[in-house]
């Protein structure tokens, strides 16, 4: 991550701030008063340029020497408050010329605006020359810049891992990314790979992943003191999802490098937790596989044995994510942790229901549900609760096995996927499942096109409040 945030507590306090160009955020309701308070040349400049303070509108104010003296940025009107985005001022980081800037007083949410500035400047540069903005921001008064950086860097880690194409982000590279992260924080990593998955009883991870020449594996990272509250994160790590023998058509396969978005996001969240030294015993479980087509691929109609002993009938090899996540959830559940959170790009149905920006989450824990909603809303990291509707659980009945992994009709596809996963968790004190999309199809402030961090800033805020000092 580029460092474009300047601390005030650097060696010469105030030195940078003196040169920084001030940014005034102006709502359209206040524009008249704002303009009246200016010298007449400034007021005329605003008028001549048609600056109305509308949402996202930008105006550079010239100084007498021809420099940029001030930046005006529109926040829109009060009536737009419901759709206002706390990241909006952050959009400036990609719009302003190179230079150093500082927000004037009166900015609605300085911490999220600063985070938005950093997240907005994210650019995926692995396969091209580094570029993009050099607009630097002097940190607003009273914000914890170290905390903002930790969150930005975790979110950008998630984006990077998703953006890297499957050729360069297979199960082995996902393992390496986990080991690299672990090394920086003295976490331990254990990997169960290939045939060992059978010996150690992860049959569904093996079966889904066996058709790839990149060996399937379960990545198990543990960090923190044994006596602390146990928080376990499980992330779907399907490095590429062809659909298997139920092959996806080309259009549906195009974006399937992002099918390890759950793994990428839990690693991003783990990075925030470890960097903040949150007093928890953290565990991250990632089943990392390719869902491939090959002579030894699993088939529709097969019956798989799962880690917890249930037999699972396969109706469609494209519903592979829930199988590998299920074996990882079983392992997570065995030590009765305080909290299990899984994140997975699990269903197209979630996107049909809520679109790409709003991941559904599922939990039976009412307190957790309220906390997730509150923290995600407060951090501009939107999510929406959907129900683990008990009556649909019967839709997973199989005529020949303990359970079918999908329901026949396809109704409520995200709900039935969540109900399937829930069957593999019984001992954890609390459990939530996030059916994320992991991708930003249309850039918005703070959210450039491509791999997306979703729900992890909200979850980090929740964990900080629950378990922090
Ligand atoms: N990875 C996909 C789900 C997905 C597709 C997420 C598109 C985001 C965008 C998953 O493995 C899958 O293919 N699910 C199937 C399930 C179906 C066969 C029951 C789906 O959603 O179509
Ligand atoms: Mn699939
Ligand atoms: Zn998938």
Radius of gyration: 24 Å
Can you tell me the CATH superfamily of the largest domain? Zn peptidases
CATH architectural group of the largest domain: 3-Layer(aba) Sandwich
Shape, principal axes of CA atoms: elongated
Q: Total strand count, please?
A: 20
Structural class: alpha/beta
Distance between the termini: 28 Å
* Residue fraction in strands: 15-25%
Largest sheet: 9 strands, mixed
Q: In CATH's first tier, which class of the largest domain applies?
A: Alpha Beta
User: The CATH topology of the largest domain is what?
Assistant: Aminopeptidase
Structure explained in plain terms:
- There is one protein chain.
- With 469 residues, this protein is of the alpha/beta class.
- The chain folds into two domains: 5-143, Leucine Aminopeptidase, subunit E, domain 1 (3-Layer(aba) Sandwich), CATH 3.40.220; 151-467, 3-Layer(aba) Sandwich (Aminopeptidase), CATH 3.40.630.10.
- Helix content is 32%, strand content 20%.
- It is built from 15 helices and 20 strands.
- The protein has helices at residues 15-19, 31-36, 40-48, 110-120, 145-163, 171-185, 196-199, 203-209, 250-253, 261-275, 321-334, 348-354, 366-378, 413-422, 456-467, and strands spanning 5-6, 21-27, 58-62, 68-76, 99-103, 135-138, 188-193, 217-223, 230-235, 237-241, 281-291, 303-305, 311-313, 339-344, 360-363, 384-385, 403-404, 431-435, 439-440, 450-451.
- The strands form four sheets. Strands 7, 8, 9, 10, 11, 14, 15, 16 and 18 form a nine-stranded mixed sheet that branches. Strands 1-6-5-2-4-3 form a six-stranded mixed sheet, with helices on both faces. It has a three-stranded mixed sheet with strand order 12-13-17.
- Strand 12 and strand 13 (311-313) form a beta hairpin.
- Helix 4 runs parallel beside helix 5 (145-163), helix 6 runs parallel beside helix 10 and helix 8 runs antiparallel to helix 11 (321-334).
- It starts with a strand and ends with a helix.
- The mean pLDDT is 96.
């Amino acid at each position: 991550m580029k460092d474009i945030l300047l601390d005030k507590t650097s060696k010469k306090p105030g030195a940078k701030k003196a040169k920084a160009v001030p940014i005034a955020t102006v709502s359209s309701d206040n524009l008249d008063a704002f303009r009246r308070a200016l010298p007449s040349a400034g007021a005329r400049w605003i008028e001549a340029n048609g600056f109305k303070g509308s949402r996202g509108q930008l105006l550079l104010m010239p100084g007498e020497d021809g420099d940029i003296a001030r930046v005006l940025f529109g926040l829109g009107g009060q009536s737009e408050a419901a759709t206002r985005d706390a990241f909006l001022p952050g959009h400036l980081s990609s719009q302003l010329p190179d230079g150093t800037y500082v927000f004037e007083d009166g900015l609605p949410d300085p911490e999220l605006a600063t985070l938005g500035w950093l997240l907005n400047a994210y650019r995926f540069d692995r396969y091209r020359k580094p570029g993009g903005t050099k607009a630097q921001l002097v940190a607003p008064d009273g914000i914890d810049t170290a905390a903002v950086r930790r969150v930005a860097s975790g979110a950008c880690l998630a984006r990077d891992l998703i953006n890297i194409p499957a050729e360069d982000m297979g199960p082995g590279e996902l393992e390496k990314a986990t080991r690299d992260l672990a090394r920086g924080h003295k976490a331990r990593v254990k990997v169960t790979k290939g045939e060992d998955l059978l010996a150690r009883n992860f049959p569904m991870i093996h079966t889904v992943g066996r058709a790839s020449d990149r060996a399937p594996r379960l990545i198990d990272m543990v960090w923190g003191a044994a006596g602390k509250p146990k928080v376990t994160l499980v992330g779907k790590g399907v490095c590429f999802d062809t659909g298997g023998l139920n092959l996806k058509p080309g259009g549906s396969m195009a974006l399937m490098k992002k099918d390890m978005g759950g793994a990428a996001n839990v690693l991003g969240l783990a990075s925030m937790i470890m960097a903040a030294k949150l007093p928890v015993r953290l565990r991250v479980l990632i089943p990392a596989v390719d869902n491939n087509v090959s002579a030894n691929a699993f088939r529709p109609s097969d019956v798989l044995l799962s880690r917890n002993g249930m037999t699972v009938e396969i109706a469609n090899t494209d519903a592979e994510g829930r199988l590998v996540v299920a074996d990882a959830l079983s392992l997570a559940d065995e030590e009765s942790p305080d909290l299990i959170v899984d994140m997975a790009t699990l269903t197209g149905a979630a996107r049909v229901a809520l679109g790409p920006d709003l991941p559904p989450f599922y939990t039976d824990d009412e307190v957790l549900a309220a906390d997730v909603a509150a923290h995600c809303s407060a951090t501009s990291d939107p999510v929406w609760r959907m129900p683990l509707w008990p009556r649909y659980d019967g839709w997973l009945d199989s005529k020949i096995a303990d359970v079918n992994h999908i329901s026949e009709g396809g109704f409520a596809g995200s709900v039935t996927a969540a109900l399937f996963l829930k069957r593999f968790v019984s001992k954890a004190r609390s459990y939530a499942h996030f059916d994320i999309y992991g991708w930003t199809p249309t850039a918005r402030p703070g959210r450039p096109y491509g791999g997306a961090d979703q729900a992890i800033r909200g979850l980090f805020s929740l964990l900080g409040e629950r378990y922090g000092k």
